[in-house]
Amino acid sequence: xxxxxxxxxxxxxxxxxxxxxxxxxxxxxxxxxxxxxxxxxxxxxxxxxxxxxxxxxxxxxxxxxxxxxxxxxxxxxxxxxxxxxxxxxxxxxxxxxxxxxxxxxxxxxxxxxxxxxxxxxxxxxxxxxxxxxxxxxxxxxxxxxxxxxxxxxxxxxxxxxxxxxxxxxxxxxxxxxxxxxxxxxxxxxxxxxxxxxxxxxxxxxxxxxxxxxxxxxxxxxxxxxxxxxxxxxxxxxxxxxxxxxxxxxxxxxxxxxxxxxxxxxxxxxxxxxxxxxxxxxxxxxxxxxxxxxxxxxxxxxxxxxxxxxxxxxxxxxxxxx
Length: 321
Fold this sequence. Notes:
By secondary structure, this protein is an all-alpha fold. The protein has two domains: 8-59 and 156-276 and 288-316; 70-123. It is built from twelve helices and no strands. It has helices at residues 8-21, 30-36, 42-52, 54-57, 70-76, 78-95, 100-123, 157-173, 176-179, 186-212, 221-276, 289-316. The chain is flat, with a radius of gyration of 31 Å. Keywords: Membrane, Transmembrane, Transmembrane helix. The chain crosses the membrane at residues 101-117.
């Protein structure tokens, strides 16, 4: 696997700066972005990718919802059970020609048949593992056709980019902003996770195409036609790969903003403590501008996450065929 002198993190910083120059996004702080991505080395990205695809390596069955059996239902509804049992006993006694013991025996046999059918129905429900991503085992080491920007010698760039995205999402999830009562991030985290899986699936598409391309063995017209088709496919893949890098760069900018807003929240707490310990000093009665700023933070995060989601969906909709 070739070595690229420019790492994946450097590519993401460059993509972020390019997006700012084009006017698509506000200008990020390259130093803050580089500091944030400093923990996204290939080794850490590989470990994050393996964690993310663990469900595919060790399939975990989903719990099967078992229908309550007859005895559980009877314990939950004792009165209804007594009424039904009496009616059933009266009915089976009539069928048995007015013999109560025979009617009771028929009732017991009927209950046993129902219980056996219930157990059989539950045993036929097979739990199925449904991996949350399509990556196969060992995907990070499978040889590929050609190379992509940011490729290293440790693992495939598609797997590394997914690992970097996982690390960035984990950074966001660990941010104090998420645990703050001043900024609501519940739905934002759901959208960020959805973007992560969209990025993962598109990286897998590129991974599958580059893993399945086969070089022509001849210089005949057929071989040249095959090479031309491969070159066209590779060109589309490389373009989509650059868009994917831009998408993950947006995620890195979002993580950097979460880090910046965490500092703002800590300053807000310090200011609140200072005003509470004023030792008799008059507290200003004017509206607190900090609340307005925090509302702007909420709106900014919502807009960024929405843009991240829209970009992930648009990039994943590109035809690579």
